[in-house]
Amino acid sequence: MKIVHLVTSTTGGAAQAALRLHESLSENDCDSKIFSIARRASNKVNVPVVEQKVAPILRLGSSALTLIQEKVIQKSVYPVSPVSIDLLDWSNSEIESADLLHLHAFYNLVSVQSFLSRYPHKRKVVTLHDERFFTGGCHYKMECEQINNGCQHCPQVRIPFRPIVAKQRHNVNELIRENLDITFVCPSLWIMKRAMSAFPELSSTHFEQIYNPIPHVASSLIEIPTRANRISFGFIAQDLDNPFKCLNLLLAAFKKVTEKRPDKYTLTLVGNSRSNYSTEHSNITQQAVTSTIELQKVLNTIDVLVIPSAHDNLPNVLGEALMSGAGLIGSNVGGIPEIVDKFSQTLFESGDQAGLVEAMLNYELSDRSVLQEMAKSVFSYQSIAKKMINVYSKTP
Fold first, then answer.
1. Is residue 183 domain-shared with residue 243, that is, in the same domain?
2. What one-character-per-residue DSSP string does 197-256 give?
3. DSSP per-residue string spanning 340-351
4. How does pLDDT run across 248-260, given as a tens digit for each residue?
């Protein structure tokens, strides 16, 4: 079976998950390829990527569409992108010869409509990294129930553009009814339940809950002496300024924590930012990483990863931290509680500063080797590849 993974770019969490899945499948002798328009061609990846060149005028149109949706259609800070244009060359020989198409990140790579209608006889799999595929365009619908009414009154977009969202939602549902040979892979039970609710016409056989694969970390890299009198917290995000990641909540909580125990706690921030947060507190360090090796070095130095997100599916960094033996403190949103509970870690109410302070002050260090062994059984390339091969082989 020849599998082609479709991903807009080689950067970001969804792309990282796709690249790792390709690696895990290749290690298990599967004929797997990554296909991308490589919008950030300078990004270096460790696996071969079939790159489609896109004309500058089309790239300009893609950028303009993104800006219009962010500044004109979108009503608040919550991301909504109902329109996605096709920059993918559907006549590419790699795609034409594939037995199965696996869609990951797709914004301005394909539209949902074209993905579902092109090559109707090919098996199709979609990994739901967020909710955009089955909503009218919002990436996280949060508590909104407009999806049950066809998204006709979407509160996240300006009134004149609500018909666009409603039409997108309607078209996708119509195409799903016509394309029953599709499987949705869900990195969390949380998003699987929401997808099943959005597509009641599909049976449960169309949905599979499979975590994103995480590379193995050699035991020799995580055998770090436990610091009996200090705990190092970590916060990792591609964009530290992303409001959904709630770094400001963590900074406020860390200030409270260090007021009570000034010599016990440190905080390491990892990601890109326009600000230098290390100037706010002597116990805070900040850095950007450019490779998985650099990220691994950071994970080896922190005791506990803090994930205070307001909205999230299941960030890859949870699995990466656990594979390194680091513990977790996470907010009770999206798929985060599933992993926090599975590994007996600490959960707090999203947005509750006092709750986060209490969680940080009362956190008890876990045995790193035990966490790593548990993580291997959950996220390893071998176990995830086996599950995905079963998905590829069966008929919904």
1. no
2. HH-TTS-GGGEEE-PPP-----GGGT-----TT-EEEEEEEEETT-GGG-HHHHHHHHHH
3. HHHTT-EEE-TT
4. 999 999 999 999 8
167 and 18 together in one domain? yes
Considering the domain architecture, whether residues 258 and 280 belong to the same structural domain is answered as: yes
Instruction: Read off the CATH number of the domain in which 356 is found.
Output: 3.40.50.2000
Examine the domain organization and report whether 368 and 386 are in the same domain.
no
At residue 226, φ and ψ (nearest 5 deg) are: -75, 130
From residue 60, alpha-carbon distances to 88, 107, 370 in Å are: 15, 15, 50
Task: Determine phi and psi for 178, rounding to 5 degrees.
Answer: -95, -10
Range of the domain at 302: 219-379
Token pair belonging to 184: 């949705």
Q: Residues 67-114: pLDDT tens digits?
A: 999 899 998 878 888 889 899 999 999 899 999 999 998 888 999 889
Quick one: 200 and 229 in the same domain?
no
Cα–Cα–Cα angle for 156, 162, 166, rounded to 5 degrees: 105
Q: Is the same domain home to 26 and 150?
A: yes
Radius of gyration for the chain, computed over Cα atoms and rounded to the nearest angstrom: 21
pTM: 0.90
Q: How many CB atoms lie within 10 A of CB 235?
A: 25
Name, in order, each residue with C-beta under 8 angstroms of 272's C-beta and a sequence gap of 6 or more. Answer: 238, 239, 240, 288
